[in-house]
Amino acid sequence: MKRRDFLKDIAIGSLLLNIHPKVFAQGTGSPDVALIQGDSPSLITKEAITALGGMQRFVSKGDKVIVKPNIGWDRTPEQAACTNPEIVKTLVELCFDAGAKEVKVMDNPCNPARRTYVRSGIQKAAKSAGAKVPLPNKHHLKKIPIHGDSLKEWEIYTDFVETDKIINVPIAKTHSLTRLTLGMKNWLGAIGGNRNQLHQNIDLAIIDLAAFFKPVLTVMDGYRILLRNGPQGGRLSDVKLHKTVAAGVDYVALDAVGASFFDIKPEELRFLQIAKEKGRGEIDLEKLTIEKRTI
Amino acid sequence: MKKERSKKYRAIQAIRIFTQFFFFGLFFYLLLMTRFPGEDYIKRVEIFFHFDPLLALVTFISSRTVYILFLPAVLTIVVTFFLGRVACGWVCPMGSIQQFFSFVFKKTKLHRPKKLEDNHTVWKYYLLIFILMSSLFTLDLVGIFDPFSFLYRSFVVSVMPALSYSVSSFIGVIYGLNLLTIGDVLVQFFENLDINAIFLQGLLIGMIFVGIILLNLSRERFWCRYICPLGALLGVISRWNVLKLKIDTEKCIDCNLCSLQCQMQADPYPNEKWKSSECDYCFTCSAICPTNAISFPGKAAPESIESIDLSRRKVVLTSLLGILAIPFFRISPARSRASEKLIRPPGALPEEKFLQKCVKCGECMKVCPTNALQPTMTEAGPEGLWTPMLVMKIGYCEYYCSLCTQVCPTGAIQELTIPQKNNLKIGTAWVDQTRCIPLKFGNPCIVCEEHCPVSPKAIKFITVNVEQPDGSIKSAQAPVVDMATCTGCGICENKCPVVDAPAIYVTSVGETRSERNQVLLDIFQSEEDPYGREK
């Protein structure tokens, strides 16, 4: 889609909004989850966002947006330990096209940030689209009340608080403790402190964190998924080319869809089961409207 | 009487000062560039060391191997042979620092030059003899006194961390004043410089550095005059150079200002006392001479040149001391049995060979992306003082990184590609059953397994059932280390949530470079042994 067409679409879209302000809010036009398959990470991402009603549904003019990919490990995109850089880049472009004033891309990685930002390819990709890609700044860490059931407060990077919109872009991988690491667990990269302690109660911790950050949009990178030796893998034989992106508002539903990439039933994942019981979102794939397409 | 200073030599002096700033700047720039460059292979940031003939010579003698990268040192020798110790006066960053502080101390009247009759400049020759003699018998002590190693180590382990700490505090104040944008810009700038800020012995090495600088209060360029063994070596080479000082006796008013202000105690006045091998060609004497009587004609030598006044007895004594010192340096347990804490960087040669080559410069400690490389104190015995070891509580060995192997100036850590590096072990991880959260309490954790970078992972699981005080049973996955595939990188120890004494920790046993420090029967994990040993 050309920029001009896009702007035209936005113009038409805003006209529609004027006529029927509740068209999009009611969600009559857009599915819960857009599940798009295809060869190009960038095209399937665009298609998924379009299926949800376009980025302007999530990002308003003049917004400060923060995009949170997984840049946790000193690994290349082919090793599928970090979010696909093209998907991140596409989201940044879409945010700017929707009128965002500033787009920031950051993560607090497990390996040194200067290395992971480079090897993941995300720094270069996001910067080329005009995003700011700051290294995590410890002066931005602040103890903030989470008001969760298990986490009362934690050190959070204020970059994720002092922003208008948050977009979560996790990659789907295996993990020995939570079985899979998807969107909700991605929030461990937005916090500081002694976060490795959270593993002792990881399911409740990530549920609390996800509720705290409340992304307006979750885009699940399933282009390459990590089947073994997660969450960082290493060998290419650990990786499966799945060529899928899923996007939606309900972050619990997105994790449920992510589980299906691995042929795992959502209710088998304890954190999803608990999240559903707490009413944080839907995990029954039957009850979700999923727009599935291959392009 | 009308003062008539030489314009020519004052101009040369100005150029010399500029050159000193330039080379110090270059030294500092290369030091800053000794960090992860955004790609896997780094350029020759350690090039300064390769111009150092002392390091080249001692490494050659002690290890009995020629290291081709030291070729530029020949240039220094040639230049010194023909032009004298210009390298000391014009290039050496250590010399420039000494002179800078000497200048400051003189300007602030903290140091007043006195007329000196002593002959202490010979100390450095004895030190050189001591170092050379001990290296002849494979004891490599040059790194402690070599000026580049000394300066680089002091900067990496002490000055830069102190600077980094100060900057960090300053940035804290900036944020405190709510100047957020300035703070953010500063943080991003300094984060990108990647300065390793935590060092064992930062205080000790810093105190030695400051001490050496403070010695300039007593004598100008104290280090260069009395201690520097590289200066001594260049002094020996320089005695036949063509740049000789000449005093025009017609013009000379015997004011002695030149000898008083001489940076190097080379005694320009009277002419026949001038020590060619001490002169660093700063041209201070010719520039300050009130009657323009001093020149460096650059022709054949004058009749008599004060030779280096070494006493034959003392030379013999120092030589003997250099040899006698060797057993004393080697009666530590470090030589008979490996220390569990002595985890050498990947590619480090077998310990004996490593110690013959390591010059304790700190290049590896600077480039390490996780700050894991630290100077030893006692772990490697006295002769291994300040050599590098990994301390996993501070950092760990990053999987896709072989930067330390690339910057080592002497080949004590042999250069490795990343696949080569990932093929070898620097140690082995052990689980402390009394502290591990799943093993002790039956609670979930497995942070170590999550971070283990090898695939398949070297940390595997067993299910443990831990009885609780109330009689109930909790089960959890607990870590077990696969000794064959564990590389000893230490990220498990670094990230273990039991922070004070991690419940999983790495010791040196199993390191590929050692044939004795092993547990498993078959020590060669891969077909190709990186140390070229036969299977």
Explained architecture:
The complex is a heterodimer of chains A (295) and B (535). With 295 residues, chain A is an alpha/beta fold. Chain A has a single domain (31-294), classed as 3-Layer(aba) Sandwich (Rossmann fold). Chain A is 29% helix and 21% strand. In chain A, helix 2 (41-51) packs across helix 3 and helix 6 crosses helix 8 (270-277). The two termini of chain A are 14 Å apart. The model of chain A is unreliable at 15-27 (pLDDT under 50). In chain B, strand 6 and strand 7 (473-481) form a beta hairpin. Chain B has 535 residues and is mainly alpha-helical. In chain B, helix 1 packs across helix 5, helix 3 packs across helix 12 (229-238) and helix 6 crosses helix 12. Chain B has 2 domains: 7-33 and 44-242, no CATH class; 343-507, no CATH class. The mean pLDDT of chain B is 92. The N and C termini of chain B lie far apart (84 Å). The chains are: A alpha/beta (295), B mainly alpha (535).
Characteristic key phrases:
heterodimer, A: alpha/beta, Rossmann fold, nine-stranded mixed sheet, two-stranded antiparallel sheet, 8 helices, B: 535 residues, mainly alpha, 23 helices
Largest sheet of chain A: 9 strands, mixed
Let me know the average pLDDT of chain B.
92
- N-C termini distance of chain A: 14 Å
Order of helices and strands of chain A: HEHEHEHHEEEEEHEEHHE
Let me know the largest β-sheet of chain B. Answer: 2 strands, antiparallel
